[in-house]
Amino acid sequence: MERLNLRRRGEILETLRLNEVDADYPFMLVQSQADSERILEAALAERDVVVERGIEATSIRIEGGFAHVGLTSASGEETVIARTVLGADGAHSMVRHALGVSFHGTAYKEPWRLWDLELDTPLDHKDGHNHGSRNELLRLLTSSTGVETAENGIRNFVPG
Hints:
Layout lengths: L2 E6 L2 E7 L15 H14 L9 E8 L2 E8 L2 E7 L11 H6 L27 E6 L4 E4 L5 E4 L5 E4 L2
Parallel strand pairs: 1-6
Antiparallel strand pairs: 1-2, 3-4, 4-5, 6-7, 8-9
């Protein structure tokens, strides 16, 4: 994405020109979460790591240099013992709280809704579009101007 248009009532109020920034990568690259997960899962599979879904980490304690992680799924509860635990569970992370690690960012009180959609729109695909009103914001970000599929089946987005 080369530009980010700030809009209200359909009119462009301001345009941030990312393609004019003196940087190695003068654009914003947006990739869907589904594609990010697919890429990460493929990389893990190459290392014989299986990703399991529908499992919630409910507790964690460190004992003898290992993490004892309580898990809950549709099939019940279990405890696994691991050398390493990756907590990628957001601003309200149970893993981070259990380990006493502080969060140095900001969290929003209100929920955010995020959709990966393919839209038929007259808006320029090289631009991002923020549509704002007094109480709401709609952000439309394009993921690419083209898609290439590598031999391993992973889709690579090509910035405009």
